[in-house]
Design brief:
Elements lengths: L3 H5 L7 E9 L4 E8 L4 E6 L9 H11 L3 E6 L10 H4 L2 H16 L9 E6 L1 H13 L3 E7 L17 E6 L3 H13 L4 E6 L11 H17 L2 H8 L1
Parallel strand pairs: 3-4, 3-5, 5-6, 6-7, 7-8
Antiparallel strand pairs: 1-2, 2-4
Length: 234
């Protein structure tokens, strides 16, 4: 399994066709877009409360995905003024709507329009990802939640059609229970993976490597075109 350093270095600059900061929607939400050459999918990151597009853990996951030919977009769900207001942080409908705006924006970009889309959500971002997936139908092809609060997606859960992977730390007892409750409501293809010995932010040795491996396999299995899947299995 890759170390975190290896994962972070897996996408060399010469492998990237595009690497730039973008501004999305009327609020000009800031994002960092990385598109490897010959990308075959796009994963959009929805961070959790108290975090941003600069989340070290999400960037490690994104860089590992870049190394596998997956484009990534890390963006800020909230403006600078909104970030300190808990009314915004836990407004899942608002966060889901903004994530939906980002999905729409990606579809209007020439370099991204043809790519299947996955969403990687953490904490409240996982709930936003699932609510957006319920609203956007087949446009979102896969969801991965890391230490997420999928339960906050509430009544939207049974309407999610995207294959969904929930990843939880084995020592994160309360969040395990909340994920199990959400898992029971999901009707789509689904999996719940508990990482032994890991706490909520997965700081333990080997924990984030496990998250990266699980997420990478899920996105590859759910988003890869049939032609690429046949090639990778040859």
């Amino acid at each position: 399994m890759q170390t975190l350093r290896q994962a972070a270095m897996s996408a060399r600059p010469d492998q990237l066709a595009i690497e730039r900061e973008v501004a999305i929607g009327p609020l000009r939400l800031k994002g960092d877009l990385r598109v490897p050459r010959e990308s075959w999918a796009l994963v959009i990151f929805a961070h959790g409360s108290g975090s941003s597009r600069f989340s070290v853990r999400n960037r490690l996951v994104a860089e590992a995905l870049n190394g596998q030919g997956i484009a990534t977009l890390l963006f800020d769900l909230l403006t600078a003024d909104e970030e300190n207001d808990r009314a915004y942080i836990f407004d899942i409908s608002l966060l889901a709507n903004r994530l939906g705006d980002v999905v729409h924006w990606a579809g209007a970009q020439a370099e991204l329009a043809a790519l299947p889309i996955g969403v990687f959500g953490a904490s409240t971002g996982a709930a936003a990802a699932l609510m957006a997936a319920a609203e956007r139908g087949s446009r979102i092809g896969a969801v991965v939640s890391r230490g997420g609060r999928p339960d906050l997606a509430g009544a939207a859960l049974p309407y999610v059609t995207a294959p969904t992977l929930l990843i939880v730390g084995g020592n994160d007892d309360v969040v395990i229970t909340l994920n199990e409750q959400a898992y029971a409501q999901l009707k789509s293809r689904k999996a719940l993976e508990i990482v032994p010995g890991a706490s909520h932010l997965f700081p333990e040795s080997g924990a984030m490597e496990t998250v990266i491996a699980l997420a990478s396999r899920w996105f590859a299995d759910c988003l890869a075109p049939a032609s690429r899947d046949r090639t990778s299995r040859a």
